[in-house]
Specification:
Strand content: 5-15%
Low-confidence stretches: 717-724
Family: In the central section; belongs to the 3-hydroxyacyl-CoA dehydrogenase family.
Bound molecules: 3-hydroxybutanoyl-coenzyme A
Subcellular location: Peroxisome
Pfam families: 3HCDH, 3HCDH_N, ECH_1
Keywords: Fatty acid metabolism, Isomerase, Lipid metabolism, Lyase, Multifunctional enzyme, NAD, Oxidoreductase, Peroxisome
GO molecular function, one term: 3-hydroxybutyryl-CoA epimerase activity
């Protein structure tokens, strides 16, 4: 902890430069808060100090309050670990203090970092510094007076937008909005800030206390209107979460009763939010996501990732073109290999459409789009892959075809080239069977659309080298994915864990429960859509193929529902042809298609699993549990077999790969909040009533009976932990 400190240097000009040291992001840990108070008090009292400059060491102002403290509070329930910063430090010591202060911002000022800067009397920033209040994304809300000062500096609607979206703006935009007083090159940041602070002291520049400003917040009725619109929006975009509405209430308090009252209410509501389940889930996901980059025996053995400049993508279909797009967007040279010019053209067009789509949605500037497009070259021959550093095969799920491709690329590509496959189901050992270089064979499992979905599941076999894993992790990060390293098994971690999701839904329907009720309950729980709408979206062909694969790997627990086949026979193919469980029409929301009901009846007749031939009676909560507890059960097997490094990797994978609600902390975190005991007893009961699909796994049974959380690391690896 030696590097965690606040220093103060007083120059001959009479400016005290107070610097935060807490690498890597200068998080505001408890000792930093104490250090700031101490140095500020000293600067205020010293006669040789005329003004203060606050800055952060190492090119980053501050990444905000130390999130580890939230985690401690979550672990202990002891809210007194949160220091009183808003009034004691920011209002009394800084903003209302006797010496003017300027924040010198470089790199980033987020959350508490930006809020300290708002408590200063001016803000000078280097170009392209990130400024934001991302607290809602952690289930809390801006503290340290941020909810009050930001609207007073930049106006209510923009401030509300910044808080509600948790997205940072750049210092250039901050300057336009009035958040930043001047932008200067990094090399001059301290010099200009010192002079600015002296200018305030000598009244050549305004001594602005933002909490007292009123000119930007508009009239009460205008403010009411902005807040009303914001409330309506977050009811749609932030379902099941309390922090957005709580934050709007706190902003309103300040509008009605004045900034200082707003600060007091903010401090109180902040504490309530820290203790919420939402905050527990989101903070867990924050750290879990960062933990995925630590893989034992890969990232801790002194290896360095090698540069991957050029990648060949084999196959220009939906996945291949998406992967090529993701690579090109991050300035990697791509060779897109197809088998004939017609397919190649299609693939190239798909990449272009992906990139143009980003431009149309204002997510990418035109010049960057042109550069990205110029990174991709088409090829019809494997000889064009002779100088690539990595190959990602993304052809159809056909074993002989994949085996042939791997033998060919092994011959053509350089000996260091990583040989990756984007298969979502096939065993990597089978794909690489005919190659000699088994240490270079690896899975790069992207989720569709590959240029948008953030998860990259990296699959390793017993033979994959640590270097190959590290290299693919680095590529994943470079293309802005979150790589999660997993072991080799049918469906790998994500698809395997979520296979029972649609299975459970099909059992329920065949037991007599209404499809639309199931979808509605799952959406209410927080997934973007229910299992039937998802099946419509991914297409029935995928459902059939995946069903076969899992059916043969896990025959003891696969439910064979005839429903999909019946739907296909009746000419339905989900969203693809506009007819599924729902009707799809351009520009309209999907609507239930009740003409599907007789087909469902036919499926029920064929499976004949309704006890006494009558639909079962289940509550809404039980519907959610009958679908998600089998998912937890499979996740337990994945943990037991050591397919993931740690339980929280499955949380991240479920959130980023399956859109499991992040505010529930991911599948295992959520399961632990529900309790292994309840899950075990429910599954046991259903397995007795409805069969083996629900049978609790050995791991779940053991954890439930011993009262050990599912997320707790295994003390001794079980016999089956041999895959990694
Ligand atoms: C009272 C206040 O209103 C409440 C608050 O301020 S709450 C905090 C608000 N701040 C935030 O939400 C910012 C969170 N941090 C981030 O978004 C990103 O870390 C960042 C943009 C600052 C940097 O991103 P990047 O360079 O990719 O580095 P990243 O890997 O994320 O972080 C580096 C390390 O810093 C840690 N870190 C980042 N921000 C932190 C914070 N606020 N507190 C504690 N640790 C933090 C990360 O956990 C990581 O640790 P590790 O190396 O041990 O895994």
């Amino acid at each position: 902890m030696g590097g965690v400190k606040v220093t103060m240097e007083v120059g001959a000009d009479g400016v005290a430069v107070i610097t935060i040291f807490n690498p890597p992001v200068n998080a505001l840990a408890i000792p930093i808060i104490a250090g700031l108070k101490e140095k500020w008090t000293e600067a205020t009292m010293r006669n040789d100090v005329k003004a203060i400059v606050l800055t952060g060491n190492g090119g980053r102002f501050s990444g905000g309050f130390d999130i580890n403290v939230f985690q401690k509070v979550h672990g202990t329930g002891d809210i007194s670990q949160l220091p009183d910063v808003s009034v004691d430090l920011v209002v009394n010591t800084m903003e209302d203090g006797k010496k003017p202060a300027v924040a010198a911002i470089e790199g980033l000022a987020l959350g508490g970092g930006l809020e300290l800067a708002l408590g200063c009397h001016a803000r000078i920033a280097a170009p392209r510094a990130q400024l934001g209040l991302p607290e809602l994304s952690l289930g809390v809300m801006p503290g340290f007076g941020g909810t009050q000062r930001l609207p007073r500096l930049i106006g209510l609607s923009k401030a509300v937008e910044i808080m509600m979206t948790s997205k940072p703006i750049m210092s250039e935009e901050g300057k336009k909005l009035g958040l930043i007083d001047a932008i200067v090159p990094s090399s001059e940041l301290l010099k200009v800030s010192r002079q600015w602070a002296l200018d305030i002291a000598e009244r050549r520049k305004p001594w602005t206390r933002s909490l007292h400003k009123t000119d930007k917040i508009g009239s009460r009725s205008e403010a009411r209107e902005v807040l009303k619109v914001a409330r309506e929006q977050v009811k749609q975009t932030a379902k099941n979460m309390p922090q957005h509405l709580a934050c709007i209430d706190v902003i309103e308090e300040g509008i009605i009763h004045g900034g200082y009252h707003g600060v007091l209410k903010e401090a109180k509501v902040f504490k309530d939010l820290v203790l919420s389940d939402t905050s527990k889930g989101l903070v867990h996901v924050f750290f879990a996501q960062r933990a995925t980059s630590k893989v034992p025996n890969v990232t801790d053995i002194g290896l360095k990732p090698r540069t991957v400049k050029k990648v060949a993508v084999i196959g220009g279909g939906l996945m291949g073109s998406g992967i090529a797009t993701a690579l090109a967007l991050s300035n990697t040279f791509v060779v897109l290999k197809e088998i004939n010019s017609e397919y190649l053209q299609k693939g190239m067009k798909a990449i272009e459409a992906n990139i143009r789509g980003l431009v149309a949605r204002k997510k990418l500037p035109q010049d960057k789009a042109d550069r990205s497009l110029s990174m991709v070259k088409g090829a019809l021959d494997f000889s064009d892959c002779k100088d690539v550093d990595m190959v990602i095969e993304a052809v159809i799920e056909n074993v002989p075809l994949k085996q042939k491709i791997f033998s060919e690329i092994e011959k053509v590509c350089p000996p260091h080239c990583i040989l990756a496959t984007n298969t979502s189901t096939i065993d990597l050992n089978i794909i690489g069977e005919n190659t000699i270089s088994k240490d270079r064979i690896i899975g790069a499992h992207f989720f569709s659309p590959a240029h948008i979905m953030p998860l990259l599941e990296i699959v390793r076999t017993e033979k994959t080298s640590a270097q190959a894993i590290l290299d693919l992790m680095a590529v994943g990060k470079a293309i802005k994915k979150v790589p999660v390293v997993v072991g080799n098994c049918t469906g790998f971690a994500v698809n395997r864990t979520f296979f029972p999701y649609s299975q459970g839904a099909h059992i329920l329907v065949n037991l007599g429960v209404d499809v639309y009720r199931i979808d509605a309950q799952i959406a209410r729980f927080g997934l973007p859509m229910g299992p039937f709408q998802l099946q419509d979206l991914t297409g029935y062909g995928v459902a059939v193929a995946v069903g076969k694969e899992f059916g043969s790997a896990f025959s003891d627990r696969t439910f064979k529902s005839p429903l999909i086949d019946l739907l296909i026979e009746s000419g339905r193919n989900g969203k693809n042809n506009g007819k599924g469980y729902y009707i799809y029409e351009k520009g309209r929301k999907p609507r239930p298609d009740f003409t599907v009901l007789p087909i469902i009846e036919e499926s029920r007749r064929l499976t004949n699993i309704m006890p006494g031939g009558k639909p079962i009676s289940v509550g809404d909560q039980e519907i959610i549990e009958m679908i998600l507890f089998p998912v937890v059960n499979e996740a337990c097997r994945v943990l037991d077999e050591g397919i993931v490094v740690r339980a929280s990797d499955l949380d991240v994978a479920s959130v980023l790969g399956m859109s499991f609600p992040s505010y529930r902390g991911g599948i295992i975190f959520w399961a632990d909040t529900v309790g292994a005991g309840h899950i075990y007893r429910s599954l046991k009961k259903w397995s007795e009533l409805y069969g083996n699909f629900f049978k609790p796994s050995r791991f779940l049974e053991e954890r439930a009976t011993k009262g050990i959380p599912l997320s707790a690391p295994a003390s001794t690896p079980s016999a089956s932990r041999s895959r990694m």
